[in-house]
Amino acid sequence: MYNMSYNVLILLTPLLTVPYISRVLGPYGVGVNATTNSIITYFLLLGTVGITIYGNREIAFIREDKVKRSKVFWEIEFLQIITIFFAYALFLLYLWYQKQFRIYFFYQSFLIIAGAFDISWYFMALEDFRKTVTRNVLVKLASLIAIFTLVKTSHDIGTYILIISLSQLFGNMTLWPYLRHSVLKPTFKRLRPLHHLIPSFSLFIPQIAIQIYLALNKTMLWKLDSVTASGFFDYSDKLIKLVLAIVTATGTVMLPRIANLYAKRDFKKVREYTYNSFDFVLAIAVPMAFGIAGLATALAPWFFGRHFTSVNTLLMIESPVIILIGLSNVIGQQYLLPTKQTKVYTYSVTVGAIVNVVLNIPLIIFWGVQGSMWATVASELTVTIYQLIVVRHQLRMDKLFINCWKYLFSGILMFIVVYMLNISMKITVVSLSLQIIEGLLIYGGCMLILQPSILKHIPLILNQRRKG
């Protein structure tokens, strides 16, 4: 729940400002932010070289030993500073030749610098999610106030970008004071930061592939269609990613837990956690995907403004991604990575990235932003199917999908009712709220009737909470 809150918090700041920013900056301004941010993402990715996941896993293996933990932390962090410095130097070279949106690229570049001070992976490895949530709340709230205070017209694109990038930098810095009681001071002569470069680089390739879904779509839309199309894609993706932050919250939590169990060779517990996590993700991903699709027709123009009406179709197309990424997150980040099957994980996301690029070009040319959205769905479907095929001899498919039909039946029934209400009712806060409540009641009622096994876990969770 702490990690879910943290992920939602990261996305909530821009999402809360979306109705305001979409009306103030317009499709062009939104597109400029999305386009420049997508380019900056490549340099940030180069600078982190897979360290976020690698550091999380490595600290989880040795978290009980403070001396080893401290040494590994400083080695990985110094490596991160070195690689970020190298990435920023390359960015400055790119900026020298880039003529369009130069000032906006510079404002976005503070996100690269922020990457050097991101140590959230360390606290996640310790399963200490409280710190990452509480310290960032004030920073995010401050950025919200700054946006509503300083961004007033369509000429304030740079101000908006600068607020977002600097808030990320300050947010990362706020975690550093907690290190004083958690790690020992570094002994520089004993540190070997470059020792971690090759292992972390093995996770760099899948990170590149993952960023294809997040950034390359917007870059290709910019070049093959328009900046405005990139903005439409970005706003649809923002809403989907907010929901995904809830669905995939278990991923970051379970990675260090599974890694720790794997190091202790408790393979039975590893499989048990995987089955339960897979079922939990299905239980929440299905209603969220069908719920977004059902609400999309009225939600997009009401939330984003009349200039973003076309986003409703994009939301309906992209909604299955919530289920697909949720499932691949369980298999990939919660099972393959902590059990040291990095190569298989890399293959899966690489194949998905290739599918995305190959389909993007013709689909964008013929169908514009909708084509790019279909390419995204196809690529995520490829990743999920590939991973399931690979683990079919390690995990029992019947246990993974034991309740799947119950969730799908409930989700489809909910979608039909919500969609019919959505297209027939006048768009207001009250009507959308009623549709959401109606959907929850239908899905919840079906769960009580069909009795999936996840309901049996609720009393155990409540009892554990009372004991805590």
UniProtKB/TrEMBL annotation:
Gene Ontology annotations for the cellular component aspect, listed alphabetically: plasma membrane
Alphabetical list of Pfam families matching this protein: Polysacc_synt
Compartments (UniProt record): Cell membrane
Membrane topology qualifier: Multi-pass membrane protein
Coiled coil, from the record: none
Sorted UniProt keywords: Cell membrane, Membrane, Transmembrane, Transmembrane helix
Membrane-spanning segments: 39-57, 78-97, 103-126, 157-176, 197-216, 239-259, 280-304, 310-332, 344-367, 373-392, 404-421
The keyword Transmembrane appears for this protein: yes
Keyword Membrane recorded: yes
Protein name as annotated: Repeat unit transporter
Species annotation: Lactiplantibacillus fabifermentans DSM 21115
Source taxonomy: Bacteria, Bacillati, Bacillota, Bacilli, Lactobacillales
